[in-house]
Write a structure and sequence with these properties.
Length: 699
């Protein structure tokens, strides 16, 4: 099923473009009850299940169809006599759901469970019977779908409904795939319900199930669900869009000619590729009409170029950008940086001599399959019970067993983790929709070599709670790519994050953390902590940091001697030179000579305005004064510990200044008298070793 095929009833000429190796792919929207059951009597299984078998064999030529036939026989017998609200025999529903999944390339276990997904709930069939007849995997999936179907779908119950759905389906994404196909078929037949119920179901589908389909990468389901929801919730815009598509159908379409030009270019370059025109679906046409205003012929579709290898994708891109005029702003490389839902493709666009702009998608055939079907295309993610160890076979017999799905995306794992902490269904519902609205994920590396999956735009606060859970309440800072940064800093894909925790157990988050927390886990944890600590443990608003005032001896020259007779020598406070620094002096007002380190910015400024430097040298005596700045995280007894570390080095503290903390960071400045300038590096190392101090530098 094409992810972007426009309604075939309005676009019959698009059907030949969906042929694959000589077999016409089934158009599920036109496939009604007669096509599902066939013209022959219902007691003939080959006709009833034939379309499913054909679609399944197209993706899995060696599949054992006997399991599907047995599952259909049980489902048909169990549902016999039951009718849908549309008046159709109930068996048409599991058949349609299974056909949708078969067209996507689902493996046999998923299709078997799909045929049986309503039997345990609506008939006398039990889970034990399913396990005995079809095995543990089918039992597990059917049980998960049954749990979802038992949930009340009343308007007031929606938040708790999807909370339970995530728990029920989170351990196996195949359960969620069946649920999405189930909702798609129900949406196709929604016309028999009252308008208000149609609108309610469509809103839930829009808010949760469509984002879930996007996140699972099942674009084929997502796009049709979008069109069905669009028709119900925005009937006027839908009719306008349908009129646009119908009007375009009667005009000359420039895309086939452009596709021929692309084929000729690739053929001449020796690149084996298949080029097809992909019509946009209704919502896509609506969105692009809002973006571009009046639509032209090339706006109603895109070109899809399918090749064999990844390298061929870039070869195609090079030819397109060489032979046509590329629209650089439209280029996106989702092969080098795949989307969070497994999607990989190159996106580009070029302008033709006639003035049309053609959008192009370039991908391999395997990428195309994953782009259409997402996790459904990954097959069975588990080892079969026959291949497992005896102990694992015993454990697998329990359908309630927790299992780890290697195809489970990071966002789904996060949802399963934080849903347990959500204080109430309404909070869960709000945060769920916010999480599903995220359209990209990033991966950051921990200091210990592990990785964290976070939504795009996440901050260090989100990373802290993802790594440490509630222990992140004591986080006081972070290093990103080796550089200290505030907790509010946003992370980028590939960053390395080292999170710093306070030693003080009374530390906790502040209210402004909520302004920077993006993940549900972080927001819920911070909110819970603030509610349980209404008075807090830190000042709500720290005083702003005043301008740095370095306290040092500016009136004396220390050990510096200028090559200018009788001149007063002063050490510059901007760079605080000490022996054996290379220094230069400049005459200032009053005839005094100010001594700077040669690399001081003031030296460059003096030279730029034509000031003549004065030679300066150091006396043989080794003592000197220097001003040091210590950057640290706030904690009790920090000043005492720093002073003690300085004293242990035999250094005298002339003066010290501690500025008010800002974002839990404190700056200290010390003017120190050193008995020997050569001991300065050791002194600075000793100060850096004090817990909480992350940097010490010369003023």
């Amino acid at each position: 099923m094409s992810a972007e095929a426009t309604n075939p009833e309005a676009r019959p000429e698009a059907l030949p473009e969906l042929r694959r190796r000589g077999r016409t792919r089934l158009d599920l929207r036109r496939l009604g009850r007669a096509a599902l059951l066939g013209p022959t009597p219902r007691d003939r299984l080959p006709d009833a299940i034939g379309h499913v078998a054909e679609a399944h064999r197209a993706h899995h030529p060696d599949a054992d169809l006997s399991l599907l036939r047995r599952a259909y026989l049980l489902a048909e017998t169990s549902h016999r006599g039951q009718m849908r609200k549309s008046g159709e025999p109930y068996i048409t529903h599991p058949l349609a759901v299974t056909l949708i999944l078969a067209e996507l390339g689902a493996e046999t276990t998923t299709l078997t469970a799909s045929l049986l997904h309503d039997t345990v709930e609506d008939t006398d069939v039990t889970l034990d019977q399913v396990r005995e007849e079809f095995g543990d995997e089918v039992c597990f999936i059917v049980d998960g779908v049954t749990k979802v179907e038992k949930i009340d779908y009343g308007a007031a119950a929606e938040p708790e409904t999807f909370r339970k759905m995530l728990v029920a389906t989170g351990n196996d994404v195949r359960v969620m795939s069946i649920k999405l196909a189930d909702r798609l078929h129900n949406m196709r037949t929604l016309g028999v319900m009252r308008p208000e119920k149609q609108a309610r179901i469509a809103k839930v589908t829009r808010d949760v199930l469509i984002p879930l389909a996007e996140r699972l990468g099942v674009q084929a389901l997502k796009t049709e669900l979008e069109d069905l929801v669009f028709a119900i919730l925005h009937p006027e815009e839908y009719e306008h869009t349908r009129a646009l598509i119908a009007a375009h159908a009667g005009e000359r379409d420039p895309l086939p000619a452009i596709a021929d030009s692309v084929r000729a270019v690739l053929r001449e370059a020796g690149i084996a590729a298949e080029v097809v025109v992909r019509p946009r679906h209704f919502v896509s046409v609506h969105r692009i009409s809002l973006k571009r205003g009046e639509l032209r012929g090339s706006d109603f579709g895109r070109l899809l170029v399918l090749v064999g290898e990844n390298a061929d994708c870039y070869a195609v891109l090079g030819e397109l950008h060489t032979c046509f005029t590329p629209v650089i702003s439209e280029f996106k490389d989702f092969i080098a940086s795949p989307k969070f839902n497994l999607y990989q493709s190159l996106h580009t666009a070029f302008a033709t001599q006639e003035g049309y702009v053609a959008e192009v998608i370039v991908r391999t055939r395997q990428m195309h399959r994953v782009a259409e079907a997402g996790v459904v295309a990954l097959g069975n993610p588990y080892t079969s019970p026959q291949q497992a160890e005896p102990a694992d076979q015993i454990a697998a017999a329990d359908c309630e067993e927790e299992r780890v799905d290697p195809t489970r995306p990071g966002w789904l794992s996060r949802l399963l983790d934080w849903q347990q902490s959500a204080p109430d269904p309404d909070t869960f519902w709000d945060v769920l929709r916010s999480e599903l609205a995220q359209d990209r994920e990033i991966t950051v590396f921990r200091a210990d070599g592990g990785t964290l999956g976070l939504p795009a735009g996440a901050s260090c606060i989100d990373a802290a709670y993802a790594q440490y859970g509630e222990a992140a309440h004591g986080c006081i800072g972070a290093r990103v790519n080796g550089r200290l940064t505030s907790l509010s800093s946003r992370l980028s894909d590939g960053d390395t994050v080292q999170l710093l925790l306070a030693h003080d157990a009374s530390s906790g988050p502040t209210a402004d953390w909520l302004d920077h927390a993006k993940t549900p886990a972080a927001r819920i944890a911070v909110s819970s902590w603030l509610e349980s600590h209404p008075d807090g443990t830190r000042p709500a608003d720290a005083a702003p940091r005043p301008p740095l005032s370095v306290i040092g001896l500016r009136s004396g020259g220390g050990n510096a001697v200028a090559d200018l007779p009788d001149a007063t020598v002063r050490l510059a406070g901007c760079c605080t030179p000490v022996p054996p620094d290379a220094v230069e002096g400049f005459v200032v007002r009053g005839g005094a000579v100010t001594v700077h380190r040669v690399h001081c910015a003031t030296v460059a400024q003096m030279r730029a305005v034509g000031r003549t430097p004065i030679a300066v040298h150091w006396r043989a005596t080794a003592d000197c004064r220097v001003t040091l700045l210590a950057e640290s995280f706030g904690r009790p007894h920090l000043l005492a510990d720093l002073t003690e570390a300085i004293a242990r080095e035999g250094v005298e503290v002339v003066s010290a200044t501690v500025e008010p903390p800002v974002e839990q960071r404190v700056r200290h400045s010390y003017t120190l008298q050193l008995p020997d300038a050569t001991g300065l590096p050791a002194l600075m190392r000793a100060m850096r070793d004090v817990p909480g101090v992350y940097d010490v530098s010369r003023a």
